[in-house]
Amino acid sequence: MNEDKMTVGVVVPTYNGGMRWMEAAASLQAQHSDFDRILIIDSGSSDATVAIAKKAGFDVENITYADFNHGATRNYGLHKTCCDIVVFLTQDALIGDKAISEIANAFRDKSVAVAYGRQLPHDDATPMAKHARSFNYKEKSYTYRLNDKSKHGIKTVFASNSFSAYRADYFDELGGFPENIIFAEDMYFTAKALLSGYSVRYVAEATCRHSHNYLPVQEFRRYFDTGVFHRNEAWIFETFGDAGGEGLKFIFSELSFLWKNRDFAWMPVAVVNNLFKILGYKAGLNYRKIPHCLLRHFSGCKSYWNHLQ
Length: 309
Description:
Helix 2 (49-55) links the parallel strand 2 (37-42) and strand 3 (59-62). Strands 1, 2, 3, 4, 5, 6, 7, 8 and 9 form a nine-stranded mixed sheet that branches. It is globular and about 50 Å long. It is α/β, with parallel strands linked by helices. Helix 5 packs across helix 11, helix 9 packs parallel to helix 12 (267-285) and helix 11 (244-260) packs antiparallel against helix 12. The protein contains 13 helices and nine strands.
């Protein structure tokens, strides 16, 4: 690959994106000169999601909702674009100025297999959502390699496909994402890349607006899926460290953030949300003991369980 002439593709899985997708499509359209191809993979939207994409001039591939999988769908999208660098975004991520070119520039370093951008909260973000972004996405860029695990532990393999990019030839060399994975396909691949001698780059200059105001039940489902992932991919945590310490650090940081910003009324909400996170995570870790009829109700990724029926 000639690093001076890299082609860049963008892949966005969508499903009933609503008004936020309209904003996201506009932010992508404004940067069309910074990428060579964009592919929207829609999972059977019943709203105007596909129409918005086509009006913006984007290529659209249609799949069924049942066929969507975090790993397999993105594998398909990466290979369909036929580009050297492929950027993944979620439908609710509003990219900042020059974000695509900034994240693509990370691959001028030939050691980089994965890069991810800085996520800032949406304007309507709750104080907890604002804290989550400041906790995970710092102001300065950095590059992590395998030997950084002794200092940073499980954070060494942190990445987010809400706004990330992959070098296609390394992606293929390492086998891409698992074809059927419930969650965190980005972390899975990053761990494989680091173990193979490559590096992951955090690009603070490449920004997007992306956050969620989760209700307690949504937190439960999200962390249930996280627990399932941790149980199924235990090798990651055996290699890079347990996530428990990072979780406690997050909780104390969140309460401190709310206190310092005098968001006292949100503190009970944060406590309830964190309780549901813990319950969901513990249930996910023990999902094999839970009756199959309940798994789809507990999970945020319903289609994952189809293959287990």
